[in-house]
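Fig. S4 source data, part A: sequence.
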Amino acid sequence: MSTVPLRVAVVCASNQNRSMEAHYFLSKRGFSVRSFGTGTHVELPGPAPDEPVYDFRTTYDQMYNDLVSKDRDLYTQNGMLHMLERNKRIKPRPERFQNCQDVFDLIVTCEESVYDQVVEDMNSREQVTCQPVHVINVDIEDNDEEATVGAILICKLCQCIQHTEDMEDDLDELLQEFEEKSGRPFLHTVCFY
């Protein structure tokens, strides 16, 4: 069992809901965690499918103020203002996974298409240290309730991994147990830095 916290990345499409909820839970439990999105821009639910859309450089505070100025009632009702309030307490702005060069022990994605993008990005990078990183996907529907359920599941998984004697040897069996308990399929691969 390691006494050093796992270095964990949690990734969804826009670094807004699922990855930020898991970021919150994991940081409260002492994990070294960062969260990311993989999209080309940040998309939030609004009055039309293509709005509102923001650049990853836009802060959560700027998004919040923009939504309040556009339609406070709509964005209060659909939960976006509450979500952005939480997000800005955690970090200033969303981050794009493809722009991060930090090293992690574990990368957890929240949907299969994001998993594919993360694996593709990791495999396109030049391998320097050959240090392994485990990439695990658990599908989490993008809504408030499922984000919380998914964050709890990710947190429990990370705690179990943290307490294994040998992550390399024990992870497949641990994931199988989590699949059976949660009723959710997990994808897993190993990439290298």
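Fig. S4 source data, part B ends here. The beta strands are 7-12, 32-37, 42-48, 51-54, 106-109, 132-138, 186-192.
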